[in-house]
Structure formats: C-alpha cells, structure tokens
Amino acid sequence: MTSFKEFARACKVIEGTPGSLDMTALVAELLEKVSPEELPVVTHFVMGEIFPAWSSEEIGVGAGILYSALAKSAGLSVADIKEIVRETGDIGKTAVKALEKVSTGQATFSSFMEENSDLSILEVFERFQAISRTSGKGSQTSKIKNLQYLFNSASSEEVGYIARISVEELRIGVGEGIVRDAISKAFDVPSDEIERAFMLTNDLGLVAVTAREGGRDAVQSLGLELNRPIRMMLAQVTPDFDVALSDLGTAAVEWKFDGARVQIHKEGDNITLFSRRLENITNSLPDIVEAVRENIDAESAILDGEAVAIDENGRPRAFQDILKRFRRKYDVHSTAREIPLILNLFDIMYLNGEELLDLPLVQRRGKLEGCVRSGDKIKVDTQYITDDLDKIMEIYNDALKAGHEGVMIKNPQSPYSPGKRGKNWLKKKPVMETLDLVVIGAEWGYGRRTSFLGSYALACHDPDTGRFLPVGRVATGFSDEQLAELTELFSDLIVTEVGTGVEIKPEIIFEVAFEEIQKSVNYESGYALRFPRLVNVRSDKSIEDVETIGRLEEMYLVQRERN
Ligand SMILES: Nc1ncnc2c1ncn2[C@@H]1O[C@H](COP(=O)(O)OP(=O)(O)OP(=O)(O)O)[C@@H](O)[C@H]1O
User: Fold this and answer.
1) Ligand 1: which of 408, 535, 539 to mutate, most ligand atoms within 8 Å of CB?
2) ipTM > 0.95?
3) What is the 3-state composition of the chain as percent helix, strand, coil, each rounded to the nearest 5?
4) Which of 1, 352, 496, 512 is the right S-S partner for 503, CB 3.0 to 4.6 Å?
C-alpha cells in the first residue's frame, strides 16, 4: 500500500520540474510504482481530478467548505483562514500554514506531526468518495467533518496537496497529454494507441490499468461501451467553400444547426444523453429521451446530433435558451413545454452490437437513416453529396435564412474520429471572430453592483505546461440579470478571495468577440484583446476546448498579414 506521503513527495518533485519530458518520466515512475488498486486513483489525482470527468460522482467541495474544514482543523476562524489566503495567494500553502500553527502552538493535534502520519492514497480517495456521496440536509457539515479528518491525520507535507485535490486544483502542471505519454512509457504501449483508447473510454485511469495488466493488445481491444460517452468528433474552420472543395473533392454538406451537441446512448429502453462536455444530461431532457425511445428502431445504438430550441415557427431560439434546458435540474417537464426542442441527428457510431466508427460517413449515414423515424421531435435532415460550388452556396444561404449557423462540409469517406478536430469535418459560418477563453478570476463590483461578480479575467491554455495564461479581462456585454446568474454560477468555483478580487477555478468558458489581438507585456500569455465583449457563456464546452496560446499566436499573425 502506497502512503499519501509518497504521492505528495512525487507531486512536489514534479511541480519543481520545468520540462514536460522530465515530468512525463516522473509521472511514469509514479504510475509504475503504485499497486493495481491505486493506479486509477493516482492517474486521476495527478491531474487534480478525483473521478473521471464524465462520471456522475462529484466531490462538491468549494472554497466555503474547504475554508471551514481548515478553520475547524486548525482551531481558527474562517476569517483567519481568509487572511492566510490573502498572504499566501494559494490554497495549498494556506492549508500548510494554518495547520503548522496548530502543530507548533497546540500539542493536542499530535497527529499532525510527520512521524504519526500514515494516511494511504486509497484512504484519502475513500474519504473523497464519502464526501461526494453525502447529499441533502447536513451534507455540508458531513463534508467538512470528512475533510477535517483528513487534515488532522495528514503530515505537513500532505495537507497542501489534500487541500488542492479536494477542490480539484492540483496545479502541478500535469494534464491529459503528460499522463497519456506517461502511461505509454510506464507500460510500453505506443502513445497514439493510449490516446485512441482514451478518446473511446474517456477514462485515463481505466486505460492505465488496462495497459498495465494486458499491455498493447488489451489497450487495442478497449472500445465503445454503451452508457459511457466517447469524445465528440470536431470540425475545423474553412476559410472558403472552394478551399474546402479542393481539399475534399466531392463533399457531404449539411446544415450547421444552431443548438447544442448531444450524444445519445440507447440500450433497449434505457436512454442516456451526454452533452458536448460529456456530462450526463438525461434527466434534463425528458422529451428527447421519450422521442428517442419511440423513434429509433434499434435495440442498441450510439448517435450524435444537435438539439435545437425552437420557437412557434420552428426557427431556432437564442443559444442561451437551449442551455437553460441543458442545465435544468428541477421542473424539467414545465421547462420542456416552455422551450421545446428538436433533435437533429447527423451521425451514428454504434448499432445493435456493431461498432461503426471505421465505416465511411456515407455508409454510417445510410445506417442512421435506416433506424430513425423522422418527425417533429427528432429528425435526420438532408445531407447533400455534391462537388458543385453554387449548390453549396445555395445550401449555405438556405441554412442562414432558416436561422441556423451555416454549413458543415464533410468528407464522405471519413471515419468517425473521436476527439479529433481534423480536415474531415469543416465548418463555415459568417465571419465573426471569437475566442473561447476560460474564466480564471473576477472582481466584486461596486455601487449598485457590489453583490455581483464582474470584470472577468480570461485565459488561454498552454498545452506544454497544462497552465492557463491570462489574456485580459472582459467587463462589457453583461446585463444585470446575467451578472446575477453568473455570480451564482461562479460562487461554487471561487478558490481564493483577496480584497475585491477572486480567483476562480477554470471551468466556465466565455466566447468573446474583440476588435483586435495585441502584443502585451501586462499578461502572462504575451497577448491582450482590444475591446473584448461577451458573446455567449459556453456552458456546453469544457476546458479542453479553451483556445491554445498557439492559436492566439496564429490569429495574431493572420491579423498582422491582413492589416
Ligand atoms: N450537421 C452537423 N454536423 C456536425 N456538427 C454540427 C452539425 N450541425 C451543428 N453542429 C454543431 O457544430 C459543431 C461543429 O463545430 P466544432 O466541432 O468546431 O464544435 P464547436 O467547437 O462546438 O464549434 P461551434 O462553436 O462552431 O459550435 C458541433 O460540435 C455541433 O455542435
């Protein structure tokens, strides 16, 4: 059994290692060393996760609960903890500092002394599991007690990492890419095969265990499973139709519906729906569940589509309306009546026991059409196979006239590539340059807006280090109503508060329009946006979708060419 102390020591070394290759080697060493039961846990912990992202288990610990647990463990007040946060600016250091006071000042917490600590990795995980399983009245107190137990049983080397993992903010620079390569190195399976298995299973813990136990063959045989989401295939932007046509020759052209992505799993009468972020949204969309149950002629299937919120004339409603449906947890039936949806299906990955990923799109399409009875709730819309530029223009204009976003231009011969943003799917919509950036901080307002968070700090992603790099703030484009909604949304994601500034766990994506990208020494990314304004809160996207620093650089260069 590996102690949590060993894990904490490894994290400390990794944290102090600058190069991603060295980091990968250290993570590989850690994965090799732990026991088979510990392996999936460590695989997630090292990325600052507790459960696989799509799992229905969630720890549900925010700053409030964490501060209370630290305060109780240290015999301090929550205000004292906030004061330490202000000094250190980091939740891990805060935990260490708060509890150090205890170990030096009050002998009663003798378990805090290093030599007494023997927490194992699995014990920490089991406590987190217990925390995630508390619900209803009294759950807050119970979460605090469980965390308190961990803090009081841990040594000073460990508390910082326990605090950070409890809010899923480990920040040692290890992301999915490094873990994928580390699994490959530790268990001698090619990295692209680990990647493929990950895209199909969405669970690096499972992939690591499989690689260790069964090697390359076992990893290759990991495949689709009903009720476990696969990564969505994604599209690249095409600058123009003729470029797309010269890339593809003949193309399969479909409307790009203005809604939100849904992946549908059908196993008999059991229907499960996943969002673009692969969250289970089945309970929010009972009308879609019903429509799938009644109109799909298949014993089992995995399907891909876009749910669109429609008005009384059948035209798409604002994007925020569809998100209201996706987020809704209560009164789902009345919301379904207020905001009716239509599900446009455009792909199929699995049918009656057969995996279809490697079939060409045109053949998958045939199978899709064969099992869907199109009606007013569910539909397989027209797909045009053409190499005629004028025809594509016509389809595009029709799509825009109908209130949709533009068109998708697909390679008719392409397989379904989970998680890939390649040239087999191209998208074309009217130009408005926007960036999907993640919110990492905010400011409490003043005057009329003191109780609202505003002036949101935005960041792009650096895939080499796994870090989020600031690119500026967005403070315009918000209504009071929206600020109230956002304040509520962010309240669970506050990591630290210093003065009126708050640090926010990177989770929520803003789609931001701007005048221009500028070079800037004020932000760590080296870039800033001129006149940024909020276009949409992209609750349908996850942090893997945040623009990379490379993309910002690219856009900056293109813009310089143009001017
Ligand atoms: N016919 C269609 N085929 C594929 N995707 C479609 C179709 N109609 C609408 N879509 C939507 O368009 C998206 C394709 O663009 P992309 O893969 O880049 O996703 P995205 O990052 O969500 O992009 P966007 O911000 O343009 O919606 C899909 O994720 C899906 O939600």
Assistant:
1) 408
2) yes
3) 45, 25, 30
4) 496
